[in-house]
Write a structure and sequence with these properties.
By secondary structure, the protein is an alpha+beta fold. Helix content is about 30%, strand content about 25%. It folds into 3 domains: about 5-185 and about 350-405, FAD/NAD(P)-binding domain, CATH 3.50.50; about 190-265 and about 335-340, Beta Barrel (Elongation Factor Tu (Ef-tu), domain 3); about 270-335, HI0933 insert domain-like (Helicase, Ruva Protein, domain 3), CATH 1.10.8. Bound molecules: flavin-adenine dinucleotide (FAD).
């Protein structure tokens, strides 16, 4: 019977533990928190967007996103759904492919996994931080709380540095580096952005729907439409999270990052010009501030007019075509420089991590050290929003667990 250690009781570690134990291995799971699965509980606003019905490597970023393809094929959606049934977890499948537990509570996912893992005979050691990992001829030595235990194989499933308040550590990178593995510099992803704008903090709390274009070194990179929310530090909202991976990666590489906001994406330039012309003609004696409040949130109007250098009290009948053109331009392309992300503490996930070039994509085993495996977010793979991060954590954990038991 193979003696296996799994470091990290998150999504990938729990899945690996179950797969390995069901395949006949003697499994010990180390978790430094007082309980396993803290990120599962916090995920999806407490609902856990557990997987997506459609997935491909295009939903991931990393030095080699195609690394995920084999693993995702092994854990197809239908396979995962039957697996969930086998541990007593039913899924609610949304029209856009996102899946949640039918209970709508992340807790159900954790309860199901924990019972399955315990039922399969896995030894779970909580409040047990692994502090060192070394290899000797007959296997690995895992050191925790001054205890040293020997195992045939070890899985590093320690996740990333994102959300340290939930127990995230960079320990997996240290262990991997000590074995000669390359670490692609980690960066926060699915995270809010800091802006160098005197206006943004004054608009804190204002939420609207916008078309957000991410510009890298002045060139348009990605455009998404969705909620944006101004904040004291800059900007958040789902549309911002959706462009944050590329923004954060570009910032890490010292590129110039900015956002262009189209505040009324439902209008093209001509329609918006006509709309403003008509609106202003119908209320000629109104101030431009009041007139624009019929179209946009009031606080946005104040600072947009400031950037357009049009006094708030100017009567709309006095605005000429040049000013209207300027307004139309700013409403459609209001630009903000991005100076930073809101950091790992606020990020849902992290890009970067253990280089996938040194890991076998079919087994998750290190190409450098026999018997050493990796799964989940510790690897240089990061998914977009929509259940894709768990998707890869389950898939890579399952493969690693089965392979380790061989
Ligand atoms: C607020 C939030 C919401 C999210 N929502 C979603 C969502 O809805 N859908 C989605 O797909 N993804 C979501 N994610 C991302 C998802 O949670 C992660 O991608 C996923 O948990 C990664 O799994 P993992 O097993 O690789 O790492 P983790 O789940 O982070 O597990 C790693 C475990 O290792 C433990 N550990 C670390 N170092 C040590 C050590 N030295 N010794 C012992 N234990 C250690 C940690 O405490 C942790 O329990 C969310 C993340 C956050 C923070």
């Amino acid at each position: 019977m193979k003696k296996i250690a799994i470091i990290g009781g998150g999504a990938s570690g729990l899945m690996a533990a179950l797969a390995a134990a069901r395949s006949g291995a003697n499994v010990t799971l180390y978790e430094h928190n007082n309980a396993v699965g803290k990120k599962i509980l916090a995920s999806g606003n407490g609902r856990c967007n557990i997987i997506n019905t459609t997935v491909s490597y295009h939903d991931y970023a990393g030095s080699d996103p195609q690394f995920v393809t084999y693993a995702l094929k092994q854990l197809s959606f239908h396979y995962f759904q039957s697996f969930c049934h086998s541990i007593g977890l039913l899924l609610d499948i949304k029209d856009d492919g996102r899946c949640y537990p039918l209970s709508n509570e992340a807790k159900s996912v954790l309860i199901a996994f924990k019972s399955a893992v315990s039922g399969a005979g896995v030894t779970i050691l909580t409040e047990c931080a692994v502090t060192a990992l070394s290899k000797e001829s007959a296997g690995f030595i895992v050191t925790s709380d001054n205890n040293k235990r020997r195992y045939d194989k070890v899985l590093i499933a320690t996740g990333s540095e994102a959300a340290p308040q939930l127990g995230a550590t960079a320990d997996g990178y240290t262990f991997a580096r000590n074995f000669g593995h390359e670490i692609i510099p980690p960066y926060p992803s699915l995270v809010q952005l800091h802006l160098s704008s005197k206006h943004a903090p004054k608009m804190a709390g204002v939420k609207t729907v916008a078309e957000v274009t991410l510009l890298i070194d002045g060139k348009s990179n990605t455009t998404v439409t969705g909620d944006i929310l101004f904040a004291s530090y800059g900007i958040s909202g789902l549309a911002i999270l959706d462009v944050s991976q590329k923004a954060s990666f570009a910032l890490l590489h010292k590129q110039r990052v900015s956002l262009s906001l189209n505040l009324l994406p439902q209008f093209d330039t001509q329609t918006l010009t006509n709309t403003l012309d008509k609106l202003f003609a119908s209320i000629p004696n109104q101030s431009v501030q009041n007139a624009l409040c019929g179209l946009l949130p009031a606080k946005i109007v104040t600072y947009l007019l400031d950037d357009a250098q049009i006094p708030l009290s100017v009567c709309v009948s006095t605005l000429g075509p040049k000013e209207i053109k300027k307004l139309v331009y700013l409403i459609r392309e209001w630009k903000f420089e991005v100076t930073d992300t809101h950091g790992f503490k606020h990020a849902e996930v992290s890009g970067g991590g253990v280089s996938t070039a040194q890991v076998n994509h079919k087994t998750m085993e290190s190409k450098l050290v026999e018997g050493l495996y990796f799964a989940g977010e510790v690897l240089d793979i990061v998914g977009r929003r929509g259940g894709y991060n768990f998707n890869f954590a389950w898939a890579s954990g399952m493969i690693a667990g089965k392979e380790m038991a061989k």
